[in-house]
Description:
This protein has helices at 3-19, 23-39, 43-52, 60-76, 80-94, 101-116, 120-135, 144-161, 165-182, 185-202, 205-222, 225-242, 245-262, 265-281, 285-301, 305-322, 325-341, 348-359, 376-391, 405-423, 426-443, 449-456, 459-471.
Amino acid sequence: xxxxxxxxxxxxxxxxxxxxxxxxxxxxxxxxxxxxxxxxxxxxxxxxxxxxxxxxxxxxxxxxxxxxxxxxxxxxxxxxxxxxxxxxxxxxxxxxxxxxxxxxxxxxxxxxxxxxxxxxxxxxxxxxxxxxxxxxxxxxxxxxxxxxxxxxxxxxxxxxxxxxxxxxxxxxxxxxxxxxxxxxxxxxxxxxxxxxxxxxxxxxxxxxxxxxxxxxxxxxxxxxxxxxxxxxxxxxxxxxxxxxxxxxxxxxxxxxxxxxxxxxxxxxxxxxxxxxxxxxxxxxxxxxxxxxxxxxxxxxxxxxxxxxxxxxxxxxxxxxxxxxxxxxxxxxxxxxxxxxxxxxxxxxxxxxxxxxxxxxxxxxxxxxxxxxxxxxxxxxxxxxxxxxxxxxxxxxxxxxxxxxxxxxxxxxxxxxxxxxxxxxxxxxxxxxxxxxxxxxxxxxxxxxxxxxxxxxxxxxxxxxxxxxxxxx
Length: 472
């Protein structure tokens, strides 16, 4: 019998035993069942099993473990308020045992939660707590090596979100070696997924695609539906960048469907946003708006302020392309207020959208604006300042961005060239256009012949070469 069938049979037997159990035995079986369901990403069922044994904990230690599991499940369901409540309870109960692995898991999950919400300083703080727990344990104790791998993974997430891509890749490679030694194929899928994301952020789509396809294969083999849904979304982003829009749409829709089935609301926001950007690129603006507004609503429900800000930029770009400049202005202003509240700088992507709105006649008036930019020349000059600031230094993004560093650089240089030409700086415009074309060639240098043909037929790419011809 295949391994996954053995696993399903074991789960069925455990469910039967749990249904007929009572007292302390029921509590322990409930914990085992919850662990089994969590490993299969069936978080809604795991939550039900845990809720059935609340009040049955025989002592404070087991009650703390229950709180920790409730926190983890709610975290995976993107219920951040509930997750923080239960993890806080577990942290309080476990504080007297600074070297227990349960405490490590609580610190780890809190670090992961704040990473997901874009609050990296808080994520680093809780990660330090997790590192302290591991340092207090012997390297030979059971579970310590896996804990060290978990530490490496969250550290890599935070470094990637800080745009420290090479450091993130080094951490992930260290984690990959540990996971291989442990034979932990399920967690290895998460490692490959993150490696793919970092390569994607750097603009190496060939490596990103290879690692993401391996991620999907591992997730399916392990029955990890959460990771499978994430992988579908990431494959959608990669194929969209490659110009394969039909494939991209199929993967986004699979991610949307599966995220809904497993109750991953943040996954719904990512998939909806992907579909929104896809329809925007096709000129299907009403459909794009429907998906992006849904993504924005879910992002707000789960209190993912980073995702909320990103979707606002997507909406602003949509409205700019649609010719609804006032709506684009409103989205950009709201996003800047949100970023100020988070004490975050505006992303390169956000700044490019601001410049696009300015160059097309919008005010792009943000919370920090002294006055509306009523003059077209003024607006173009402001767009020029923004774009020159972007192209004058390496573009920094995290690996949750929909576009890679190179793609953003191409877009910024193309837009700068167009703005400079309108302002009368033809020589500078030609130089920026040449830079956009060179970056386009660099982005596709390791594509095979078919991939290059599809990529160079992409409307965004054709605009780079059409514009340079127009400039002469």
